[in-house]
């Protein structure tokens, strides 16, 4: 069923009784050409691009719960391409271009809003770092505008510019940055993959990975064994657990990242704002809630919930940056399980087991990477060649130390990224 304004009008006039399910609910077949483990944003986009770009349709996406029930629905929805290092800069630029054509491509409203993102800086040294980052963004073909203090004040007059500890010196403005509706992104890719013949199988937990003679032959699930020529692991914070089924030990730690939303308010924040000294970031949703978050909870965990000290830390940063936020009532919070890599950059690569592929280590960058990740991982699985935008995301860089991409310059410690 193709969505259109005319279809909405017609359905409204007939009691909305003609809408068809957005995707099928098939039973798993005995065998597929490709099995994708993980029905989140990255897994669904991989299946979609395998079908759209490579004509492969004998594919199953296996999700232990419901589609989009993991970290793709547990984040602050920010979309941006303001990375500095070679490899990251090219990849996120590629992903942003896919974002910009996504709604027309999927025939689905993912509520992508390029409202602009402003990274604040609070010292001369931080300004110099953002000048370098902005130049890298421009050289990559993306957009970046350096704002002085008055330039920021013109766009964000409600910030506390006189705070004693972290005075606002200026900001790096990324006009093409913004937000999207996280669950709509998952639903749009699910619908697009289903329309191209991909089987989306929910409530189907993978319990084992079958390997014979150094090659993957299929998976064991709670709904029976499924044979497959190729298997892709795309399970975010559960990457280490699933890879262990194939005898692999990944350089990944799983940490909780909390996010929060307030009651609905009248429009007040037009942009996405990132507070450089408090690791606080905020935007306003289409429903009026202020959506914000901060640091990781700094301990390894598989629990999709956080702790009170981090709630206090995020609230303190928000109050320091914009005291007006103290008048808003927080409605709820949630925790996403982040698959943190040692250098803060992701992994898209083959494994030493023939036919087994890995997509993980997205740290804070998972949501904004959904289109690019799926597009590049699909290219790798279909052709056994790295996509040019993701050729630096190799697994062996952690064994050799060559090609590490420490975007934040914080060293090889998972929870610092």
In short:
With about 425 residues, the protein is an alpha/beta fold. The chain has helices spanning about 5-15, 40-55, 90-100, 100-105, 125-140, 150-155, 180-195, 240-245, 310-320, 370-385, 395-400, and strands at about 30-35, 60, 80, 115-120, 145-150, 170-175, 180, 200, 205-210, 215-220, 225-235, 255-265, 270-275, 280-285, 290-300, 330-340, 345-350, 355-360.
Description:
By secondary structure, the protein is of the alpha/beta class. It folds into two domains: 22-75 and 183-251 and 343-416, FAD/NAD(P)-binding domain; 114-176 and 253-340, D-Amino Acid Oxidase, subunit A, domain 2 (D-Amino Acid Oxidase, Chain A, domain 2, 2-Layer Sandwich). It contains eleven helices and 18 strands. It has helices at 5-13, 41-54, 88-100, 102-106, 124-139, 149-155, 182-195, 239-244, 308-321, 370-383, 397-400; strands at 31-37, 59-62, 78-79, 117-121, 145-148, 170-174, 178-179, 199-201, 206-212, 215-221, 224-233, 253-264, 272-275, 280-284, 289-300, 330-340, 347-350, 356-360. The strands form three sheets. Strands 1, 2, 8, 9, 10, 11, 17 and 18 form an eight-stranded mixed beta sheet that branches. An eight-stranded mixed beta sheet has the order 5-6-4-13-14-15-12-16. Strands 3-7 form a two-stranded antiparallel ribbon. A hairpin with a 5-residue loop joins strand 17 (347-350) and strand 18. The two termini are 42 Å apart. The mean pLDDT is 95.
């Amino acid at each position: 069923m193709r969505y259109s304004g005319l279809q909405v009008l017609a359905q409204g006039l007939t009691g909305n009784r003609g809408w068809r399910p957005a995707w099928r609910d098939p039973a798993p077949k005995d065998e597929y050409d490709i099995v994708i483990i993980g029905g989140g944003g990255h897994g669904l986009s991989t299946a979609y691009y395998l079908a759209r770009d490579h004509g492969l349709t004998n594919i199953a996406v296996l999700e232990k719960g419901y589609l989009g029930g993991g970290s793709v629905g547990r984040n602050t929805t920010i979309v941006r391409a303001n990375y500095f290092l070679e490899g990251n800069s090219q990849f996120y630029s590629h992903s942003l271009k896919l974002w910009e054509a996504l709604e027309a491509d999927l025939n689905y409203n993912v509520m992508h809003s390029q409202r602009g993102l402003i990274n604040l800086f609070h010292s001369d040294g931080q300004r110099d770092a953002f000048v370098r980052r902005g130049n890298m963004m421009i050289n990559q073909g993306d957009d970046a505008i350096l704002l002085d203090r008055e330039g920021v004040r013109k766009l964000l007059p409600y910030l506390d510019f006189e705070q004693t500890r972290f005075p606002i010196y200026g900001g790096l403005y990324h006009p093409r940055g913004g937000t999207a509706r996280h669950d709509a992104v998952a639903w749009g890719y699910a619908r697009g993959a289903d329309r191209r013949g991909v089987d989306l199988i929910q409530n189907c937990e993978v319990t084992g990975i079958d390997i014979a003679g150094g090659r993957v032959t299929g998976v064991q699930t709670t709904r029976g064994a499924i044979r497959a020529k190729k298997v892709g692991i795309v399970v975010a914070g559960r990457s280490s657990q699933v890879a262990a089924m194939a005898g692999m030990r990944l350089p990944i730690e799983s940490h909780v990242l909390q996010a929060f939303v307030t009651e609905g308010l009248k429009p007040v924040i037009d942009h996405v704002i990132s507070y450089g000294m408090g690791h606080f970031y905020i935007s306003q949703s289409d429903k009026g809630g202020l959506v914000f978050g901060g640091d990781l909870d700094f301990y390894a965990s598989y629990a999709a919930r956080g702790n009170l000290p981090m709630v206090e830390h995020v609230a303190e940063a928000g109050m320091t940056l914009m005291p007006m936020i103290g008048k808003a009532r927080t409605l709820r919070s949630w925790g996403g399980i982040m698959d943190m890599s040692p250098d803060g950059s992701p992994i898209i690569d083959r494994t030493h087991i023939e036919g087994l592929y890995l997509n993980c280590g997205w740290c804070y960058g998972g949501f904004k990477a959904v289109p690019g990740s799926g597009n590049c991982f699909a290219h790798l699985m279909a052709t056994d060649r790295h996509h040019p935008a993701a050729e630096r995301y190799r697994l062996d860089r952690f064994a050799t130390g060559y090609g590490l991409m420490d975007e934040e310059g914080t060293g090889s410690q998972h929870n610092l990224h």
